Amino acid sequence: MEEVKNGTKSGQIFDKKLSRREMLRLTGASGLGLLLGGGGVSGILAASGAVHPAAPAPQASSEDIIPFYGSHQAGILTPAQNFLCFASFDLTTSSIADVKKLLQSWTTAAAALTSGTLIGNANENPNLPPSDTGEADGLTPSKCTITFGVGPSLFDGRYGLASKRPSTFADLPAFAGDSLDPQWCGGDLCVQACADDLQVAFHAIRNLARIARGTAVLRWTQEGFQRTGGADPKGGTPRNLLGFKDGTGNPDVTDAAEMREVVWCGSESPAWMNGGTYMAVRRVRLRIEVWDRSSLSDQEATFGRHRKSGAPIGATDEFAKLNLDAADPAGKPVIPPDSHSALAHGDGTVKMLRRSYSFSSGMDLTTGQLDAGLLFISFQKDLVKQFVSIQKRLAKNDRLNEYMVHTGSAVFACLPGVREGGYLGEALLG
Ligand SMILES: C=CC1=C(C)c2cc3[nH]c(cc4nc(cc5[nH]c(cc1n2)c(C)c5CCC(=O)O)C(CCC(=O)O)=C4C)c(C)c3C=C
Ligand SMILES: [Fe+2]
């Protein structure tokens, strides 16, 4: 391993054909098995920090590239791309140095993946497993963003980080009606890869998991989708699987002051989270078979909005303000107080930025029903004041509860953005 880290020998690996004997000598006694079985060449490259972008894909144009480096991570305010591949990881190492090395390697790899270049420089050598798995070779970057977070469990006793955990950063409390399956919960690290092409997003997760071998393993994954830009060239608010426009009431991501108020952590947070944000993830299965049998007026009363326009009940403009005081001549509220929008809105002072994706993961073999729903993702600067307070209200009274069940839950601290030459989590682990 050491030999590979040092310049000349790694140069030999990449430039010259190696005999089997040379290969064994280079990789040490158990080396080749280790190389191929755990992490392969990209694992070695990752461990040595030698993951370098190759030549850009010829078709890549600037509109296809969302810059990876910046003061905040991409994939948070970025308008949601067509596809999502989400992965939660468990660390298997007991060494904080390994965690740091992994985040350094992920940083270099993510910069390559989001610019549409191959990972590593062992993609031509017939004697080595390629350092990039290749399925995105020649594809455009497709607006790929890769957003990284760390879970509360990173701050348990394993890495000496307990004193750095912000007091409000903990697993979410149990909510009424939760039916969580541990298979869809938690994680030490998360990676949210979004792109306008599913193969590009999948490629990102696959290669980051490959690089992590020996240090972290996948805990759970979920793919997601929304309507594509091709199917909706005007880019209206996407509809969820219940047929309703979802995202209308989001705060304006172009309003920097509002984003500082709602999303970005500032000086009130520990320095390592300055410019970061907290992510809440809930895997929500929708009872679509039940929903499909309910009347349009029941459906609209459930959301407090019209299905066709997305406007609040009683209004015609999708973006009209929710008037929760409006009443009909008999004094009955026009928007049901237990509708999803009314409860989520509350008095309008507590907001979050939602960036969810629909999912369809085959069927439940025991019931014959679709395992489909919403991978709810929200970003906020304070999980307790924002996500928890809204979800408590919803869990208790939301009309939508009849049609959904929360089966997975996780929270992550999405690290601040990375400057060129820096790495993810530098302020936490540096
Ligand atoms: C705790 C936060 C929320 C969860 C969980 C949640 C689940 C969930 N939501 C929909 C569909 C819609 N949500 C809508 C609005 C809305 N939802 C939340 C929060 C949670 N939703 C908020 C804060 C808001 C905005 C309220 C406001 O101030 O106006 C809407 C209406 C359109 C819109 O504003 O986006 C829909 C539709 C589903 C299907 C779901 C779980 C599966
Ligand atoms: Fe909602």
Automatic annotation (TrEMBL):
Pfam families: Dyp_perox_C, Dyp_perox_N
Primary localisation category: other
Documented EC number(s): 1.11.1.-
Substrates-to-products reaction catalysed: heme b + 2 H(+) = protoporphyrin IX + Fe(2+)
Keywords associated with the record: Heme, Iron, Lyase, Metal-binding, Oxidoreductase, Peroxidase, Signal
Primary enzyme class: oxidoreductase
Keyword presence, Lyase: yes
Location of the protein in the cell: Cell envelope
Cofactor detail note: Binds 1 heme b (iron(II)-protoporphyrin IX) group non-covalently per subunit.
Domain Dyp-type peroxidase N-terminal: start-end pairs: 73-226
Cofactor(s) required, per the database record: heme b
Cleaved signal peptide residues: none
Annotated Dyp-type peroxidase C-terminal domain residues: 237-418
Role played: Involved in the recovery of exogenous heme iron. Extracts iron from heme while preserving the protoporphyrin ring intact.
Similarity annotation: Belongs to the DyP-type peroxidase family.
Keyword Lyase on entry: yes
PANTHER family per the UniProt record, alphabetical: DEFERROCHELATASE, DEFERROCHELATASE/PEROXIDASE
The protein's name in its UniProt record: Deferrochelatase
